[in-house]
Amino acid sequence: MSLNRLLFIVTGPSGAGKNTVMTHIYNTFPEIKKAVTYTTRAPRPHEQDGVDYRFIGQEEFFAKVREGKILEYEQVYNDYYYGSPAEIFDDGPIRIMEMDWKGHRTYRQAYKDIRIASIFIVPPSLDEIKKRILGRSAVDNMQSRLANAQEQLEHADDYTYIIVNDQKDRTLQQVEALVRAELINRKRNDNLRHAQKLVSNFSDNF
């Protein structure tokens, strides 16, 4: 397995706090770059094309699927499509992406030769899930989002790390600690070579 390239994947049900976690990671660790995904929905007022998502029409979206430029995609709530790029290391060896459990499985199969550190964010309760969903969605969208939340939670055991987001500051501290550990582990081969060089020096000098 190559430790030079490292991919962080963040997953969780709607309203779990994924965006907060991702923003904290790439604001705290400038060497970690966001791999921008595609969507056919229109940008929200605070979103920027090429930063939050690549906003494209449905025709262009499926053209990229046929060309192999989108590795996996999903239709969300029978509405818009979201897709993840096939090539994510074109401008940096350490990337972070948000995706659902299906995307996580697809990337694990496609990138078997790299380290994938996956983080599943769990809301503290069902009531909190409902509260967070209502804060951003129409009531008539509730059942489909709750069904999706249940589906995501059923696959939490597939992830490297599982964090319950019941207190924001504590959650971000835990995330920061695990990211630091992964970045140290990424340098394992270089550190091992240094240790082996010291062993060789012992042999030459004693």
Q: For the terminal residues, how far apart are their CA atoms? A: 35 Å
Judged by helices, strands and strand pairing, the structural class is alpha/beta
The named CATH superfamily of the largest domain: P-loop containing nucleotide triphosphate hydrolases
Which spans have pLDDT < 50 for at least 5 consecutive residues? none
Helix content: 40-55%
Kindly report the average pLDDT value.
89
Oligomer: single chain
> What's the Cα radius of gyration?
19 Å
Total of domains? 2
Largest sheet: 5 strands, parallel
3D structure, described in words:
- With 206 residues, the chain is α/β, with parallel strands linked by helices.
- The chain folds into 2 domains: 2-35 and 91-205, P-loop containing nucleotide triphosphate hydrolases (Rossmann fold, 3-Layer(aba) Sandwich), CATH 3.40.50; 36-87, Guanylate Kinase phosphate binding domain, CATH 3.30.63.10.
- The protein is 43% helix and 23% strand.
- It contains 7 helices and 9 strands; from the N terminus they run βαβββαβββαβααβαα.
- The protein has helices at 18-28, 58-66, 101-110, 126-134, 142-153, 168-186, 188-205; strands at 2-11, 33-34, 38-39, 54-55, 70-76, 80-85, 94-98, 114-122, 161-164.
- It has a 5-stranded parallel sheet, sandwiched between helices.
- A hairpin with a 3-residue loop joins strand 5 and strand 6.
- The longest helix has 19 residues, at 168-186.
- The radius of gyration is 19 Å and the shape is globular.
- It starts with a strand and ends with a helix.
